[in-house]
Amino acid sequence: xxxxxxxxxxxxxxxxxxxxxxxxxxxxxxxxxxxxxxxxxxxxxxxxxxxxxxxxxxxxxxxxxxxxxxxxxxxxxxxxxxxxxxxxxxxxxxxxxxxxxxxxxxxxxxxxxxxxxxxxxxxxxxxxxxxxxxxxxxxxxxxxxxxxxxxxx
Length: 153
Prior knowledge:
Helix content: 40-55%
Radius of gyration: 17 Å
Strand order of the largest sheet: 1-2
Order of helices and strands: HHHEHHE
Number of helices: 5
Number of strands: 2
Mean pLDDT: 75
Number of domains: 1
């Protein structure tokens, strides 16, 4: 059975715009060109496939919200959604604080595949898989700024 919302999302080009936005985010906001994605890679003890599945589920929910409206209180369509800066900053700080406790960010290791020129680690996830799964299970619309579609389109 085809999901009419997802068919609408695919036909509207939202997926391509989202893919571009994710690429720009990884390149610009995370300061880590060519990275797998900020705080999603695993150095040990887990499954990259599991992380990818969690991300795809989350992105699919984002696309459904974009196509259907962010909430039942506001059933209008949106052209884009972007993470709120305060939520993104909070997430970044939490990840850096947690990564600082790991061997991959140790100041005693001068040369590391995972560190950037500033000695920061951006590509690894410091979280347990069950925590990452829980956090990406459901999109919270309050974490995003919603941009409405142009009513003329």
